[in-house]
Amino acid sequence: MTLKVEHVTGGYGAIPVLKDTTFAVQAGEIVGLIGLNGAGKSTTIKHIMGLLQPQTGKITVNGLTLAQDLTAYRQQIAYVPELPVLYPELSLKEHLTLTMLAYDLDPQTTWPKAQELLELFRLDKKLDWFPINFSKGMKQKVMIVCAFMTSAKLYIIDEPFTGLDPLAVHDLLAIVQAKKKAGAAILMSTHILANAEQSADRFVLLNHGRVRAQGTLEQLKAEFNLEATSLEDLYVQMSEEAPR
Ligand code: ATP
After folding, report:
1. Using a 6 Å cutoff on CB, does residue 48 contact ligand 1?
2. Is the model's pLDDT at 128 over the cut of 80?
3. Is the CB–ligand 1 distance for residue 38 below 6 Å?
4. Phi and psi for 171 in degrees, rounded to 5?
5. pTM of the shown model
């Protein structure tokens, strides 16, 4: 499995937000998508999800473009959005059932996986509740359970740590590691650099809609010509650079 974003220029209107963006995520790898507010992280993710169309460039998941087969393309991807998307008229149980239908999952084998995740995130007693009335963190957990009960090949998580308590962050990182070990590819956008540094194998640093640098922390340190730095130091240095 490989996600390939190749020379993508795109955004919301005539003036592009993303400019010639190229990076890849391989199977069994966690890649951190890092950048300041407005750098283009969510815009990149919207292009991968097919919510926006590139003006130029190409995105493939396992060699497949969205235009070739929309359903097959989307079923390979599980997505945790930045803000929870919940249906006011559906219970938690119905949200899970709907996700199983959308991903063509066998309920018999998927419900035990869902149950395990629900217990982990302390939502197992709330199946008949309406998530629209949940707390911010609980809503986020519903999105996480829906995404991680699938057997997607690519997981895309947009700012997953916002609103989660430390225990939930710990549990989410453990789930992400388990999916990685099982061979999934994971793209995770975050501002919580300590979590990114701890869990990601490689980083893509976005600045003003361009990939400023990418690689392992060691490679980035070498590229930025800094010694003994953390991801946070690189981030600060990048943020001081003018748009190119
Ligand atoms: P953050 O860390 O704040 O979530 P981000 O890196 O995810 O930032 P994006 O949301 O991708 O940033 O925004 C990149 C640029 O695209 C910004 O200049 C923003 O104003 C613009 N943008 C985002 N959403 C829209 C929209 N719906 N219509 C027009 N422009 C938008």
Report:
1. no
2. yes
3. yes
4. -65, -40
5. 0.92
Hey, how many other C-beta atoms are within 10 angstroms of the C-beta on 143? 24
**Average per-residue pLDDT in the chain?**
92
56: left (phi over 0), alpha (psi -120 to 50) or beta: beta
CB 54 within 8 A of CB 4: no
DSSP 8-state symbol, 243 = P
Q: What is the mean pLDDT of residues 79-94?
A: 94
Q: Which fold has domain 3-83+151-241?
A: Rossmann fold (3.40.50)
Residues 12-44 pLDDT 10s: 988 999 999 999 999 999 999 998 888 999 999
Q: How far apart are CA 202 and CA 25, in angstroms?
A: 9
Task: Report the atom number in ligand 1 closest to the C-alpha of 38.
Answer: 12
Amino acid identity of 90?
L
pLDDT tens-digit readout, 178-205 = 999 999 999 999 888 888 888 899 999 9
DSSP 26-79: ETTEEEEEEE-TTSSHHHHHHHHHTSS--SEEEEEETTB-TTT-HHHHHHTEEE
Q: What are phi and psi of 39, to 5 degrees?
A: -70, -25
